[in-house]
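Re: folding output
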Amino acid sequence: MNFGKQFKEGLITNNPVLVQVLGMCSTMAITTSFMNGLGMGISVLIILTASNVVISAIRKIVPDKIRIAMFIVVIAGFVTCVDLALQAFVPAVAESLGVFIPLIVVNCIILGRAESFSYKNGVLASAVDGVCQGIGYTAVLMVMSIVREFLGAGTFGAGLLGAEAKGIRILPSQFPVGMLTLPVGGFLVLGVLIAAMQWALNRPKKKKEESK
């Protein structure tokens, strides 16, 4: 197990959003405020890590034919726990995220890592993979949320003090581009981030080819 390599993969070279292009629905739907992005990111990180550990621990006693059903049952259990915890301790975030917390059950990132990694590797490596992939996912959500909230609404921290809280006003109300808080804004910001990531990943290869 190489923690440094796994961390780099989760954050950069195999980022679940910008490289694997998974979990697009929740990524574009909830990244309209910093608290939404942080709440969803941490929820996915916890569920992904816990699911990876359990799936890895029981992978040798579960028949291969029912592995997908087993993945869903394990993930659904942890999603329920996280959903109830959010409603109990941070109801404003739970209300803001709404149906997207239960929908984590079918999030392609979690199912994808269960199939491609935790079902084939040990418990410790699977736990590290869950943490690293979760950090990568959370980082992208936070960047998108900050950009869309700041440039689209001119505020920061909307929802921090309650579901109706509008956050701290940074830009005067006439300057923000309201379109960025709409679905099209999610597509635009995500497209720019994916393009930037692909440029950064392909740059060393291009330089190496040019030097030959």
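--- second protein (sequence, then structure) ---
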Amino acid sequence: MVHAVGGLVYMDGANMNAVMGIVRPGDCGADMMHYNPHKTFSGPHGGGGPGAGPVAVKKHLADFLPIPVIVETAPGQYTLDENRPLSIGRVRSFYGNIGVLLRAYAYIRSQGPEGLRRVSERAVLNANYLLARVRSFLPVPYGSRCMHEFVASAMKIRASRNISAMDIAKRLLDYGFHAPTVYFPLVLREALMIEPTETETKATLDEFADTLKAILEEPPELVHEAPHTTPISRPDEVLAARSPILKWTPPGENAAF
């Protein structure tokens, strides 16, 4: 319908680990999309680490891609093509985080087509298994099935025991778990967006679910002060966002936090 009135379709490819090897985005009618290889192809996601977002387009948009464009001049020989009159020009982040891209490339080559399909199947299976475990003690408002992630809400536990989504995330750190995304999506209050990967074992998923349930039963005062095992417990997050310190200084010389 969009194409019929002269429009273009952009597809969000941030979460290809739910459909790769199963669905081809081009067949869905998308003209353009970005990938998140730091999520889909084994790179860490979150924690302030580097990401990458290569953009793919169909042939009718290729002339508009940023320059330079890598072209093959002979078998095994490549050059940078700057002669693209319709190009949008250079973009600052053209080269991206090459370490993330190399890791993704190695992961793709090691898995192969059949392996990548299994990655999607297992990511979806793990997420649905964990959803089934979690929904018995935390509300999951958007149904009993999901793709590679699901969103639970701590709204009821906050109302009854004054334990927030942020409190839960901070306390999970004490148990050795990387906390899930909290307060996103914004349409759900006290959101916990839980996204197990394809590599997690059933034992790890069970341990996570059991730990999550245990946290909800702990004394609120203990949870409010978490994490107890990290060098910094709860920094001033507003100050950290507005005045980030992006280089290391010896202890004692930086009093901001």
